[in-house]
From TrEMBL:
Keyword field: Membrane, Transmembrane, Transmembrane helix, Transport
Transmembrane portions of the chain: 20-42, 54-73, 115-133, 277-298
Family annotation (PANTHER family): PURINE TRANSPORTER, XANTHINE/URACIL PERMEASE C887.17-RELATED
Name listed for the protein in its UniProt record: Xanthine/uracil permease
GO MF term set: purine nucleobase transmembrane transporter activity
Length: 460
């Protein structure tokens, strides 16, 4: 939610006290969406994903998992096990509201809030137990059980306590079905951008660079989590259509008065339930449509009912951490910076920025030292580093670059071969000469045929 927070508190400001008005900010979001469509059509977003080092792309998926875990454990959107501290960035929470100071820090009675434990046991342990038995609706069952248990007003973990806020929630909950029409949709934007001047351009530029890293990284990580990413090309099927859909959603959302609408990390919950096609998104959309009319019920699902779900999804997303190249420092440290900076900065985009800058600094210094020493001073374990180049193979270049290079079938993207082979081999990839030109070990097994002792063909 970092981009939404930037839209609200930095661009628009508290009750419109920021440098850009609400309607002008929506105009910036609308323009940003169409710029994204253009970047997606020319293949720039796909190309950006491909040039990011492999370990950092894996780390992005792990970092999003840790990000979800932090949200699930937080006090505002989770079970409340941790919260901000006074002397430390994070502190143990889980205390009743009566023992919090004005900043939300627990002064005493930590881990004694009944909502924490009902969320852990009925939302976490129950869901995990059902997942062990491959129950597809385990996440929904866990959320539903905690929600129903939290609705009675007489329980110590009720979502409707006998307070002014609790009474307001309960009055809304009793409506069950309600509908609020959307008004003034056509007048949501203000195209007098000259009035905001440089502040409008700054907001548009910030939306662009944060969104292009945040949304692209999230969408790629979700595709990787669902297992559809092709490791040879670094892309996933129909990625252009997915990126264009993501971009159009931004512009359409601005027409309804919304901050950037993009792929969110909560998509991992649907993937964890087994969803790997567009039907998952369609089902989610239908559920959101239904929730418009049953908003009192869905708005009454307490945060401690969904907190452990985010933790469990985060656990499943971090399992790919073993794919990071921990053997070479130049790959391991940038990946580690990426995965830890995402949750601690509360931003996917800034986590990627931190990782990219670290990767460029470390490996850039190694490259400079290698040039100065004419290749004599290199790290002793450099041969363990991952293959990377800022010049993707011709099949991985955007279509307009392939067209400029004279490729007559520029619209077809050929899969990349193994980097070591594709750089050194020419002609048929199955000839002995080609295999001998690589560093790959070859085992020649000559065997005799049963027809008189003629020597058979070689096997690689």
């Amino acid at each position: 939610m970092g981009l939404n927070a930037y839209f609200t508190f930095q661009v628009v400001g508290w009750h419109g006290t920021g440098p850009v008005s609400y309607r002008l900010a929506l105009t910036a979001v609308f323009i940003e969406g169409f710029i994204f469509v253009f970047l997606s059509l020319i293949g720039m977003r796909q190309w950006l994903v491909k040039i990011i080092p492999a370990s950092m792309k894996v780390a992005a998926s792990v970092g999003i998992g840790l990000f979800l875990t932090l949200i699930g454990l937080s006090n505002t959107a989770g079970i409340g096990a941790i919260n901000g501290g006074v002397n430390t960035p994070l502190d143990l929470g889980g205390c009743p509201d009566a023992f919090r100071d004005k900043t939300g820090v627990c002064t005493s009675h930590k881990l004694r809030n009944p909502t924490l434990w009902i969320g852990i046991f009925c939302g976490g342990v129950l869901t995990a137990w059902l997942m062990m038995y491959r129950v597809r609706s385990a996440i929904i069952i866990g959320i539903a059980v905690v929600s129903v248990l939290s609705w009675p007003r007489t329980t110590p973990f009720t979502y409707f306590p006998y307070t002014e806020e609790g009474a307001s929630r309960f009055d809304f909950f009793k409506k069950v079905v309600t509908f609020h029409p959307i008004q003034n949709v056509l007048n949501a934007q203000d195209w007098n951008v000259a009035r905001a001047g440089s502040q409008f351009a700054l907001a548009l530029f910030t939306f662009l660079y944060v969104d292009i890293l945040d949304c692209t990284g999230t969408l790629y990580s979700m595709a990787r989590f669902s297992g559809v990413v092709d490791d040879s090309t670094g892309d996933f099927p129909r990625s252009t259509l997915a990126y264009c859909t993501d971009a159009m959603s931004i512009s359409i959302g601005s027409l309804f008065g919304s901050s950037p609408v993009t792929a969110f990390v909560e998509s991992a919950a649907g993937i964890a339930e087994g969803g790997k096609t567009g039907l998952t998104a369609v089902t989610t959309g239908v559920c959101f449509l239904i929730s418009i009319f049953f908003a009192p019920i869905f708005a009454s699902i307490p945060p401690w009912a969904t907190g452990c779900t985010l933790v469990l999804v985060g656990c499943m997303m971090t399992r790919s951490i073993v794919d990071i190249n921990w053997r070479y420092v130049g790959d391991a440290i940038p990946a580690f910076i990426t995965l830890v900076f995402m949750p601690f900065s509360f931003s996917i985009a800034y986590g990627l920025i931190a990782g990219i800058m670290t990767y460029a600094a470390l490996n850039g210094l190694v490259y400079i030292m290698k040039l100065i020493s004419f290749g004599r001073v290199v790290p002793p374990d450099e041969d363990l580093r991952e293959y990377w180049t800022y010049k993707p193979k011709s099949g991985s270049l955007p279509w307009f670059v392939r067209l400029a290079q004279g490729d007559r079938r520029f619209w077809e993207e050929s899969p990349d071969n193994h980097p070591a082979i594709s750089e050194r081999t020419k002609g048929s990839a199955h000839s002995d000469k080609d295999f001998e030109s690589t560093d790959m070990p070859i085992e020649m097994d000559r065997y005799r045929q049963p027809d008189g002792g003629k020597q058979g063909e070689s096997r690689v």
